[in-house]
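Incident log, support desk, overnight shift.

02:14 A customer reports that sequence design results differ from what the structure should imply. Their input is reproduced verbatim below. On-call engineer (initials T.W.) acknowledged and began investigating.
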């Protein structure tokens, strides 16, 4: 696979980069540009461990694909033990007319549950274009600063929830 573009010109970020632990989270991934002028034809998100029960929002003109896998660590949800969960979500333009031109940005939305413990989680995103792709998958060796990374993964800072009963 060919990786093209510069991180300053093409990036993927979350509209809400922080959220309380143990809550449901709506991840809105904002895609800024194509690949060195080439339009975006697909977007694939690899979900981080601890992000549970993911469901994507359909997008007109784009075909959804969901991949699931057995979990290394099952979890409880509504009184049931979950042993298999969504690990990857893809949106693929259904035709050339639906490609996302480099001159525009768009948003791709999914939701899921956040881990009970605070800390950073990273969404890896593969942005496929008519010519080339960008793998937003670099994670810092320590901490959360993406300074110096050419193609950083998308960071969500999971923060401590307030006391039960005080969440709004």
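02:41 Re-run completed on a clean worker. Output:
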């Amino acid at each position: 696979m060919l990786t093209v573009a510069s991180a300053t010109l093409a990036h993927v970020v979350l509209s809400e980069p922080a959220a309380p632990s143990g809550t449901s989270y709506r991840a809105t991934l904002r895609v800024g540009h194509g690949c060195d002028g080439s339009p975006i034809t697909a977007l694939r998100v690899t979900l981080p461990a601890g992000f549970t029960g993911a469901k994507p929002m359909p997008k007109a003109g784009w075909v959804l694909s969901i991949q699931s896998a057995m979990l290394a660590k099952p979890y409880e949800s509504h009184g049931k033990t979950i042993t298999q969960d969504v690990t990857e979500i893809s949106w693929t333009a259904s035709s050339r007319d639906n490609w996302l031109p480099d001159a525009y940005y768009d948003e791709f939305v999914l939701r899921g549950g956040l881990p009970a413990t605070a800390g950073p989680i990273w969404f890896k995103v593969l942005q496929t274009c008519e010519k080339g792709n960008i793998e937003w998958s670099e994670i810092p060796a320590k901490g959360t600063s993406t300074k110096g990374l050419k193609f950083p993964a998308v960071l969500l800072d999971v923060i401590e929830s307030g006391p039960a009963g005080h969440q709004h």
